[in-house]
Amino acid sequence: MIRRLETEGLVDIGAYITLTTKGRSLAESVVRRHRLAERFLTDVLDLSWSDAHVEAGKWEHVISPVVEAAMTRMLGGPTTCPHGNPIPGSDYRAESTQQLNSVTVGREFTVTRIPEELEFAVGMLDYLESVEVLPGRMGIVKSAELRGDMHVEMNGRDVQIDAFTSERLLVTVAD
């Protein structure tokens, strides 16, 4: 498989395997279509995060440039997927973020991004969506355990966040 990617000019094989300019461009295109499809599937068709993520994995390979442009127009030029991850080629402006597990007890935070590593954790998108840990939502750290688990308050509700998630969930903290 790697040799085929090299033959197609998508990777260079040396001490490490790296994407070529052509490979990076193709990867960014697939990520852009995936995140745009997720945005369309959640915002327009009202699919759950997890269903949209699965479907977008199929759509990312068949969306043409014409359809991609039409979806972008229809959605008003979104800059992030529903999980807050930037859409390549958009006007996304990165905020200064930190991991949730670095926020001290009693501090308020705003969820900004749910990284892809959490998207692929079985059941994680369903859980985060069900407890309203969503980009743009504010919370307060109520407690943090030594092993990394945290209790936060989101919309007046106590939510448990495990260590794996608290190490990856990106937030902003007000000064």
Your description of this structure?
This protein has 175 residues and is of the alpha+beta class. The protein has 2 domains: 2-74, Orthogonal Bundle (Arc Repressor Mutant, subunit A); 98-173, Roll (SH3 type barrels). The protein has 7 helices and 8 strands. It has helices at 2-7, 21-43, 49-59, 65-74, 116-119, 124-130, 163-166; strands at residues 11-13, 17-19, 98-99, 108-113, 138-144, 150-154, 157-161, 170-173. The strands form 2 sheets. A 6-stranded antiparallel sheet has the order 3-8-4-5-6-7. Strands 1-2 form a two-stranded antiparallel ribbon. The protein is globular, with a radius of gyration of 18 Å. The mean pLDDT is 93.
The major pleated sheet works out as: 6 strands, antiparallel
Domain module count: 2
CATH topology of the largest domain: SH3 type barrels
Strand content: 15-25%
Helix tally?
Answer: 7
Structure classification: alpha+beta
CATH class group of the largest domain: Mainly Beta
Q: How widely separated are the two ends?
A: 49 Å
- The CATH architecture of the largest domain can be named as Roll
Tell me the CATH superfamily of the largest domain: Ferrous iron transport protein A (FeoA)
**Biggest sheet: strands side by side, in what order?**
3-8-4-5-6-7
Query: What is the average of the pLDDT values?
Result: 93
Shape: globular
